[in-house]
Request: fold
Amino acid sequence: MANRRASITDLAKTLGLSPSTISRALSDHDDVSEATKARVRQLAEELHYKPNQLAAALRRGRSNTLGVLVPHITGHFFPQVVHGIATEAAKLGFNVMICQSNEDTRQEQTNIDLLMNSQVEGIMVSLANTTHDFRHFEAVRQQNIPLVFFDRVVEDFEGSNISSVMIDDYQGAYQVVTHLIEQGCTRIAHLSGPLHLNIHKNRHQGYRDALTAHGIEVDEELILFCEMNQKGGTQAMRQLLKLPQRPNGVFSSNDLAAIGAVQAAKSQRLRVPQDVAVVGFSNEMFTTLTEPNLSSVDQRCEQMGKTAVQLLQKMLKGSPQRQGPPKPIVLKPKLLVRESSQRR
Amino acid sequence: MANRRASITDLAKTLGLSPSTISRALSDHDDVSEATKARVRQLAEELHYKPNQLAAALRRGRSNTLGVLVPHITGHFFPQVVHGIATEAAKLGFNVMICQSNEDTRQEQTNIDLLMNSQVEGIMVSLANTTHDFRHFEAVRQQNIPLVFFDRVVEDFEGSNISSVMIDDYQGAYQVVTHLIEQGCTRIAHLSGPLHLNIHKNRHQGYRDALTAHGIEVDEELILFCEMNQKGGTQAMRQLLKLPQRPNGVFSSNDLAAIGAVQAAKSQRLRVPQDVAVVGFSNEMFTTLTEPNLSSVDQRCEQMGKTAVQLLQKMLKGSPQRQGPPKPIVLKPKLLVRESSQRR
DNA sequence: GAGGGTTCCGGATTCGATTCCGGTTGTTAG
DNA sequence: CTAACAACCGGAATCGAATCCGGAACCCTC
Reply:
């Protein structure tokens, strides 16, 4: 038995009413008597009737669905953000459609198209790190589909007329370096990723500014660009320890490289944090599992996802004409001091 | 300018053709001349025409969307599986809609309804751990919507007539214990979670059977039920080390507790693996970051997601009448021997 | 040049819900 | 007793695409 779902006309026929009345009854419209409403509701219950969202969405022009496009759903950060997004979206009654760009601009384009064709009401994007051309977002613009970037945002786009949510990387880095200085570090190295990514750029700048603000001259020798993983961190640290004047503090732009640095230091019989204090960035879950526990900066991942959804909803509700100029939302990061940088 | 998207009728009008021809031209139907196909395609290009998936889905009765329902998108496991799902779904041309039950049966029900109303073509579910009543899946059944459970599956459901993907926890545990025995461990302890969860039950059984198979009597004193996190592992290990005859090997049902156990051992000046060898389960990403690196069992998370999608697709393609009895797919786990259990 | 085939296209219908515009009752006021 | 109005409901159009059915135009053949 091909158990087709009951449609609104099925209800109409068995009750001897018209589809329009059924529709109105189910949406609790005033033009329907309580008596018939009750009848309709009861039958709907019996037949397990559920409105076809596709049809309703098509008619209304509202799909009740939000799109998410992330580089990938691995590691710590993106899953957390997606978690925040899904949770908040569910609370507001939205479905969530999810895509991965795999850090590839072409897939990013395809997925943006896909989401738009699926008539999502809004799109949240974190850019692939290979994306330098933003034309595919121009289309989203033109269709007046609310668009929010998070974490990896575009810098210049139509006069930076975009909504975005990110954390204050600069501020986070600044806090880290200040903390290291307060712990007595005098030569603070920095492990950085490529500066064309704004996260690294801003952390790098925060590092420099914090040093100068405290009267410490920036030593370019202490700034190393490496692969931001464990191995990269280890190699970079080895190099730093060969310097005639080795650093006594390290600020790494992410946690993995920081762990690598710690291990390199320990393998040379240096004590962390007494000889070298190390701080990472991202507050990955493993930071509390290593020895010593790794100081890091919390990125408020979940909050970021939540905020992105709320921002979208605001844009959806606001009049399309005048919803105010979109201003980037910047979340405050939180420095978490743990064993790797606590010198007492 | 309210830039409404171009529809198929817009194309029809400006080209002086009928919507049906446009539709056929775009789907490369034989009944349209190459000349007009070219004209249509060109105009479509110019107007950035993209078919409205909602309308097409409604008409065709196929939404091209798969639904995923997981307890949550946090930690290591579920994001990895979702990653696998999203990747494979994209490859096969499906969209993915994602929901979280937050380990709550009611939310699980609501989300199942939601997915069904959104006309997804198939659903993948990992159960909330509070779910003991499976009536909400009965509806999915009745609508003939393909349903695949993964990892947390239902045991008895309509004569266990369900599709599922899981890993062989029993086998994984068995391998671990065998490995520990081969490394010379004679007293092997087991840290377990509550046995009403099938993952712990099966791992526990694998532990017992592997011991007896190698002629070692199971010592109930060495089996501890604890919170499966770092702290729980530490406490359990401390207790084990107070025994008159302390264990020289530990198999923990997850990695976090294993790390806790390692730390407890190290804090009592025991060497890992020489004095106590430790193996965890799940192959969390931090297993390669601790000292020593933690031996563990890989759960094939991504593979699980991929397999779930493939299974769904097979069900979608197969004739609804005879697609064979759904048999559970059991993935082989992979023991990864690292420093914490390698004694040479 | 009549019959039979292609080739290419249009009209109308359909998917399932929403919604505009009316129309039929029944009630009440004048 | 009629006009006016409210309460309730139906018909039909609509969203955008897919598809069934049929028809015009053209070519070929005997």
